[in-house]
């Protein structure tokens, strides 16, 4: 793991600045969507501004009834229109971009920063698109933004290629410590009864071969497995390399869920059968993101599906903490009461939350802990915090 990956793993995305970037982008997209609704939807779905995972170009094309290449063209045009409007209109404060990606920084420093944000937010499949957009809004010119975003893509692609274990000599295979699953098995929400067998193939097939996704060879399965993000790849490696895991299947089921009347589908990351016969359905969600309303709805649906099949349910964050640990996180009691009392009067938008953050100094994980503890509703793109 590189120093950038270690730093991102340590922070777990605990950075209000990254959330603020998404909020500024969401506000810009919202304005664009008034006259060009399809362009707004393209950017939101591709970048995951609403809290959903970023979509591959294959999925984006299927959503809008076009080819993968045409989806790329439409997305690129939509981003170009948004950048031009932002540069000409001056209605949005772009200082958050200029501060995080200054014109005077070296190429290497900018690339390291953008990569760190990619790992922290688990958004590998759109790392290049996000990097380009951030740099353009920070004031970098077109060619420089393309060049630096290309460097980010090359780093991600190189890291993904290292995951292809079958291309590496046996002595270099990553060793998975025997006790790595001990703390996580204690966090599993177990079901009653005998578990159903694992499915024989992934349920996610539409974009299984999208070239924006990573892949690696599984020794247990004797075939390639695919993933969207570094965090997912870490889980698959641990499943493949652990003697306690008999077998596993990536993206084993399509699970439906509802967001305000909109029917959607989700594919949990993996299901694993352990040596003691127990089976666990596992979904990868970065720690702070477990508090997003959409991810809580997905988890409720995933848990119900798992228990109906006699499987345990686990949200795997890749951090030292799980959801229950985050719920128990200590937050300054006065700061927590301030927010509770304020929410009693109605929802908060991003501007008011930012003032609250500046006044109290709370961390992003503090907010996530309070949201989970009190069952508040945290929507993204645009941000809205409410009682639910």
Terminal CA distance reads 39 Å
Radius of gyration: 21 Å
Strand content: 5-15%
> Uncertain spans, ≥5 residues at pLDDT below 50?
1-13, 163-173
Number of helices: 16
Strand order of the largest sheet: 3-6-7-8
> Mean pLDDT, nearest integer?
91
- What percentage of residues falls in helices of 4 or more residues? 40-55%
Count all strands and give the number.
Answer: 10
Explain briefly what this protein structure is.
With 388 residues, this protein is an alpha+beta fold.
Describe the fold and architecture.
The protein has 388 residues and is of the alpha+beta class. 50% of the residues lie in helices and 12% in strands. The protein is built from 16 helices and ten strands. The chain has helices spanning 3-11, 16-35, 37-47, 57-64, 68-89, 95-100, 107-121, 127-137, 142-162, 182-185, 230-241, 293-308, 323-327, 333-343, 350-360, 364-374, and strands at 214-218, 223-227, 245-250, 255-259, 262-266, 270-274, 279-284, 312-316, 377-379, 384-386. It has a four-stranded mixed beta sheet with strand order 3-6-7-8, sandwiched between helices. A hairpin with a 4-residue loop joins strand 9 (377-379) and strand 10. Helix 8 (127-137) runs antiparallel to helix 9 (142-162). It is globular, with a radius of gyration of 21 Å. Residues 1-13 and 163-173 have low confidence and may be disordered.
């Amino acid at each position: 793991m590189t120093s950038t990956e270690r730093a991102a793993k340590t922070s777990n995305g605990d950075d209000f600045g990254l959330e603020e970037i998404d909020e500024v982008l969401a506000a810009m997209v919202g304005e664009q969507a008034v006259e060009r609704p399809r362009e707004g939807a393209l950017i939101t779905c591709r970048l995951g501004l609403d809290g959903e995972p970023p979509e591959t170009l294959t999925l984006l094309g299927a959503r809008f009834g076009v080819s993968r290449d045409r989806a790329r063209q439409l997305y690129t045009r939509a981003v170009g229109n948004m950048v031009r409007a932002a540069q000409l209109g001056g209605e949005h404060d772009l200082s958050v971009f200029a501060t995080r990606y200054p014109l005077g920084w070296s190429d290497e420093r900018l690339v390291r920063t953008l990569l760190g944000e990619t790992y922290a937010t688990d958004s590998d499949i759109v790392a290049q698109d996000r990097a380009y957009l951030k740099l353009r809004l920070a004031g970098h010119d077109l060619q420089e933004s393309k060049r630096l975003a290309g460097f980010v893509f090359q780093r991600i692609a190189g890291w993904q290629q290292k995951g292809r274990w079958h291309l590496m000599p046996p002595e270099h295979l990553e060793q998975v410590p025997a006790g790595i699953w001990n703390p996580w098995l204690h966090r599993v929400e177990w079901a009653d009864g005998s578990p159903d067998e694992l499915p024989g193939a992934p349920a996610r097939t539409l974009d299984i071969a999208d070239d924006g996704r990573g892949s690696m060879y599984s020794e247990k399965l004797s075939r390639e497995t695919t993933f969207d993000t570094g965090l997912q790849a870490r889980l698959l490696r641990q499943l493949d390399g652990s003697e306690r895991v008999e077998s596993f299947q990536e993206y084993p089921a399509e699970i439906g869920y509802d967001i305000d009347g909109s029917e959607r589908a989700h594919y949990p990351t993996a299901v694993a059968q352990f040596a003691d016969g127990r089976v666990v359905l596992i979904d990868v969600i970065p720690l702070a993101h477990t508090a997003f309303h959409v991810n809580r709805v997905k988890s409720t649906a995933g848990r119900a599906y798992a228990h109906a099949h006699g499987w345990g349910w686990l949200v795997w964050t890749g951090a030292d903490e799980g959801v229950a640990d985050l719920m128990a996180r200590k937050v300054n009691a006065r700061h927590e009461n301030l927010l509770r009392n304020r929410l009693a009067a109605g929802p908060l938008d991003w501007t008011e939350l930012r003032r609250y953050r500046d006044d109290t100094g709370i961390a992003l994980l503090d907010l996530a802990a309070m949201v989970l503890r009190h069952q508040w509703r945290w929507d993204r793109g645009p941000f809205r915090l409410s009682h639910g």
